[in-house]
């Protein structure tokens, strides 16, 4: 193998596979590493750090950039997610692209850019940046939606581009949880934070706590301190704190420190952990990047509302627990009104796991079907639809004590159908008559088998099911960026950070 070919292979391994690219690049300055490489391939001269981190990095970036542009260029419809992040010295904005590959009916996602943003975060400036990204990748006419958080400047920026905007489900859910905790049990949370901070700062107290945990046959779990920017961290803090109630009380008593917590505080901690467990699980489920999530939004919100109402009627919760339940219920009912959005409704009906069950009533379902029929007409397909009566097997999967139990119990009920017949309505009606898939099935695999049977609906779903329910893909990019630009590496240029992350994210 020639010197250049080996070098290219080295840079691919370092940039694509190494957990920390910067450390991997600096590794080749180690004499031990040089000796190892020399023994493996005596004829090869290991490139210098600057060569590997600059010249060869640029070569790999340009190669991969061309590949990504070619792939997104073939997509029929693309959804973007976008968000902003500020590190030690600089501000960044990220944009990721999501689409369904028409050839094999699989979901794909790419990081388009993590760009330095030195201007003010106004809607006009953000819109201009997003437009530049779309033009650079040649996808301006393909973008059907942009998913953002609830920030007004982000939502306004997307509106300025005349592109549909959907609010991040996970971000909205987190706002509801944080506001409900603040308005129902803020004193308890502050007391817990104060105690956890004390144990974090005092090695003596921490050692004593671990000793008591061991003596009382508790698992030696570390206490968790909540972080305002980290979703559900307050829930994790309260849950972990309550699990260690006896060791904590004993430790503070031995140290002569008053906890300031009363019995009612311990009760609300336990109740909050029970109430908010489903919110945490749902946040994780809806933050998935490699599965279809948008159609779940309406179903999950409905199930959460029913669960909260059931808890309120159970009489199992104290005064503060009831307040928390009511606040969560109010938050769901007010903040998720955007679920009546046409795109969300269409995505739900076009998902073979949900169809009409994602609509709140028959009238809503029929209105959504009318919208789908109009969309089908706009697609301009006039091919004849063959009537078929295939029915997929409908297997149930047991999953006890899940927020999904109510949904799963109705799996085998008769399907709601439309009866007016026309070429497009025949196609839609036949699709709706198909048996529901189980909710754990991959809807894209179902459509891969049936796309020739329902060609117009398939073209429509390419525009709807590619939309993720959250902007979490951008959050993941920022988490990776934090690992790269640390206080010890704060001189890294923004352009280089973008190239490193572009390669790492898009090579996997």
UniProtKB/TrEMBL annotation:
Keywords: Metal-binding, Nucleus, Zinc, Zinc-finger. GO terms for cellular component: nucleus. It is found in: Nucleus. Residues 427-506 form the HAT C-terminal dimerisation domain. The keyword Cell cycle does not apply. It comes from the Eukaryota. One of its GO terms (molecular function) is zinc ion binding. Signal peptide: none annotated. SUPFAM superfamilies: Ribonuclease H-like. This is HAT C-terminal dimerisation domain-containing protein. It comes from Anopheles minimus.
């Amino acid at each position: 193998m020639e010197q250049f070919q080996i070098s290219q292979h080295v840079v691919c391994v370092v940039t694509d596979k190494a957990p920390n690219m910067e450390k991997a690049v600096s590794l080749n300055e180690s004499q031990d590493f040089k000796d190892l490489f020399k023994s493996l391939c005596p004829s090869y001269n290991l490139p210098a750090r600057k060569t590997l981190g600059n010249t060869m990095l640029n070569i790999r970036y340009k190669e991969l950039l061309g590949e990504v542009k070619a792939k997104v260029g073939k997509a029929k419809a693309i959804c973007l997610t976008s968000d902003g992040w500020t590190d030690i010295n600089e501000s960044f904005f990220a944009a990721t692209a999501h689409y369904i590959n028409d050839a094999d009916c699989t979901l794909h996602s790419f990081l388009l850019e993590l760009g330095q943003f030195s201007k003010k975060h106004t809607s006009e400036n953000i819109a201009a940046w997003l437009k530049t990204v779309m033009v650079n990748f040649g996808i301006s006419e393909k973008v059907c939606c942009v998913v953002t958080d609830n920030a007004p400047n982000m939502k306004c920026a997307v509106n300025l581009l005349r592109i549909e905007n959907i609010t991040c489900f996970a971000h909205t859910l987190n706002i509801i949880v944080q506001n409900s905790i603040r308005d129902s049990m803020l004193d308890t949370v502050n007391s817990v934070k104060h105690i956890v901070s004390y144990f974090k700062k005092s090695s003596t107290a921490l050692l004593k706590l671990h000793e008591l945990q061991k003596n009382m046959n508790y698992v030696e779990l570390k206490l968790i301190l909540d972080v305002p920017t980290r979703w559900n961290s307050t829930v994790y803090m309260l849950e972990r704190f309550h699990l260690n109630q006896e060791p904590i009380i004993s430790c503070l008593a031995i140290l002569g420190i008053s906890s300031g917590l009363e019995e009612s505080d311990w009760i609300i901690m336990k109740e909050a952990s029970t109430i908010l467990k489903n919110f945490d699980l749902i946040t994780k489920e809806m933050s998935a990047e490699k599965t279809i999530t948008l159609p779940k939004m309406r179903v999950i919100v409905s199930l959460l509302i029913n669960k909260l109402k059931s808890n309120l009627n159970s009489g199992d919760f104290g005064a503060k627990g009831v307040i928390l339940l009511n606040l969560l219920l109010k938050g769901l009912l007010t903040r998720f009104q955007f679920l009546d959005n046409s795109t969300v409704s269409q995505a739900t009906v076009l998902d073979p796991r949900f169809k009409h069950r994602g609509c709140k009533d028959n009238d809503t379902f029929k209105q959504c079907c009318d919208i789908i029929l109009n969309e089908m007409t706009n697609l301009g397909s006039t091919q004849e639809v063959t009537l078929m009566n295939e029915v997929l097997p409908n297997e149930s999967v047991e999953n006890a004590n899940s927020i999904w139990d109510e949904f799963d119990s109705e799996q085998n009920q008769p399907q709601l159908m439309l009866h007016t017949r026309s070429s497009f309505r025949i196609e839609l009606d036949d699709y709706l008559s198909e048996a529901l898939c189980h909710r754990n099935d991959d809807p894209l695999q179902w459509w891969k088998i049936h796309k020739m049977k329902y060609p117009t609906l398939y073209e429509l779903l390419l525009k709807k099911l590619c939309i993720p329910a959250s902007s979490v893909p951008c959050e993941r990019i920022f988490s990776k960026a934090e690992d790269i630009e640390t206080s010890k590496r704060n001189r890294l240029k923004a352009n280089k950070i973008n190239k490193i992350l572009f390669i790492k994210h898009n090579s996997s």
